[in-house]
Design a protein that fits this description.
Blueprint: H1 7-42, H2 58-68, H3 79-95, H4 115-136, H5 140-171, H6 176-181, H7 198-211, H8 223-226, H9 236-261, H10 282-302, H11 308-335
């Protein structure tokens, strides 16, 4: 049975897409507000506090401003690629959420067995939008930013992929729901994959920050060096799409970290007989997500930007060797049943 043969299946699938996509776009706006608030507190200032209660409507006011602003196209830009680039950045950033589960009850658009492969395929497409943006703008600053980004994202994509391979070795599945279920057990948080894969947990986290071009790895934008990097010539709604893609990817990174390493929606007290505190719930997943998402803001407000050569050295000379070694370690764990799925 396919979608076209049964209208109810089509409507149900469309409904699930809206249930995921609409809150995601709202979450991006709220995340921007939370980022500005947290950085304000770390700088000992107020942050947004004028528009709406606690400044909550500031992000929506900024979006409205961007949408009504004129899109200024550089004279010698390639118009087709200029407008295609933001779409190539935002579409994969939204499409990847099709395989992300939110609880064990089937709240996922497509619970496919090759979910991790789909994730890697979609996230790798985002770099094309950035490269096209830099090239089509016909700007030296934009081209330099896009070249930096291409090298950085491809380098750290290898590290992130190897971290996922370690998770797959222990879980024995490419399905995200199965990966979470493989971390269930009677020892609570000590059954999660973060413990046997602790080095890979940090590799995944730092590689994810580099993949999303966030501080201290934001050399693709590098305001103090190349004005604004690959999107320096973009304005209005075209710039808003790049902005949406970046923050959607940050939220995705913060969601996948708990699913892959910290038990997803499983309670840290599972098996401890503490009543509802020991029960799996989407609340646990969102709590872990919130901690990770806030940590990305903390990184931005705390660390200075890495030099470009330092970023490349960290990826190729540190993370990739560690990842290769730990894939063998994960295989040994699995072979000797140190960590077994559904233990």
């Amino acid at each position: 049975m396919n979608l076209s043969s049964d209208p109810m299946i089509f409507l149900w699938t469309l409904g699930k897409i809206l249930i995921v996509a609409v809150p995601l776009i709202i979450a991006v706006a709220m995340y921007v507000w939370w980022e500005r608030k947290v950085i304000g507190w770390m700088h000992v200032r107020m942050g947004p506090n004028k528009i709406g209660p606690f400044g909550l409507l500031q992000a929506f006011a900024d979006v409205t401003k961007l949408l009504i602003k004129e899109i200024i196209i550089p004279t010698n830009a390639n118009r087709l690629l200029y407008f295609t680039a933001p779409l190539l950045a935002v579409i994969p950033a939204l499409a990847v959420w099709a395989v992300v589960p939110f609880n064990g009850g089937g709240l996922v658009i497509a619970d496919v067995n090759a979910g991790v492969l789909y994730l890697l395929a979609m996230t790798s497409l985002g770099v094309y939008g950035i490269i096209l943006a830099g090239w089509a703008s016909n700007s030296r600053y934009a081209l330099l930013g896009s070249m930096r980004s291409a090298a950085q994202m491809i380098s750290y994509e290898i590290c992130m992929g190897m971290a996922l391979v370690c998770v797959l070795v222990l879980a024995g599945s490419l399905n995200f729901t199965a990966i979470v279920e493989a971390q269930a057990g009677s020892k609570g948080l000590f059954d999660w994959f973060w413990l046997p894969l602790l080095p890979m947990f940090f590799v995944y986290y730092i590689s994810g920050v580099a993949e999303t071009n966030r501080l201290p790895f934001d050399v693709a934008e590098g305001e103090s060096e190349i004005v604004a990097g690959f999107h320096v010539e973009y304005s209005g709604s075209a710039f808003a799409l790049f902005f949406l893609a970046e923050y959607a990817n940050m939220i995705l990174l913060s969601f996948l970290a708990p699913i892959l390493f910290l038990g997803g929606w499983l309670s840290p007290f599972q098996g401890w007989h503490l009543g509802f505190l020991s029960e799996p719930s989407w609340i646990w997943l969102f709590l872990k997500f919130f901690i990770f998402a806030t940590s990305l803001i903390w990184l931005r407000a705390t660390f200075p930007r890495y030099r470009y050569d330092q970023i490349m050295r960290l990826g190729w000379k540190v993370f990739i060797p560690i990842s290769i070694v730990w894939i063998f370690v994960a295989g040994i764990f699995r072979y000797f049943n140190v960590v077994t799925p559904g233990h």
